[in-house]
């Protein structure tokens, strides 16, 4: 059994799973950990709570954790943030720190803006501010994806993953690569359907074209914001992180070496210490 498999088993052994149905959408979420403060971990696009297993195991000794699986059919940020707030209500949590990565980082920013009273410190990882050009790109992708047979989409996606993965994580051992390729196979080859993919497109359009972050109270409290990025992230690297840093009042910004966008997931161990230090300062 590999170290990753052992950590995943540790996550399953220690996480307490619950479900909450909101407007006919089932929110499944995990809780666990210890400590005085709560921390919500929000996964990226196509993911679920299980993909946050390394964060969960590493942070459980220091924080009480709540890790949602955001329903894949949700297509607007208002519904997402309302659901996240309902999960907090269900657990009796008044305020929580929030960590979100990639699409989860956009969700975390929306939550901090739309329900600021529920959020303490925020960590936005491997994401950006709303960018109309991304919204426009998603609009261009919408119709081709809608017309494309799902079998073809899955074949193209899974065919390109090993090469992209190797380029972003050049030093990854073979057994680790095999583990993550199996996770991608499960997500893109089995779990996600056409409805979920189109909803993800709409959710990204909603964030980039209709979500206003200018009223977020944390913009005036930069000590409550940490921005994390990998320097070789071709999507959301140093330039994007610098723009976020300025938007959030010269917030803390921490660049991590070597890896690309998937480093947020695959090399999460290099992110844990900056996260812990920021949240406990």
Question: Can you offer a commentary on this structure?
Answer:
The protein is α/β, with parallel strands linked by helices. 50% of the residues lie in helices and 18% in strands. An 8-stranded mixed beta sheet has the order 1-2-4-3-5-6-7-8, sandwiched between helices. The model has no long low-confidence stretch (mean pLDDT 95).
Spatial shape: globular
Average pLDDT:
95
Main β-sheet, in a few words?
8 strands, mixed
Radius of gyration: 18 Å
Fraction of residues in helix: 40-55%
**Class derived from helix and strand content:** alpha/beta
Task: Give the spatial strand order of the biggest sheet.
Answer: 1-2-4-3-5-6-7-8
Number of helices: 11
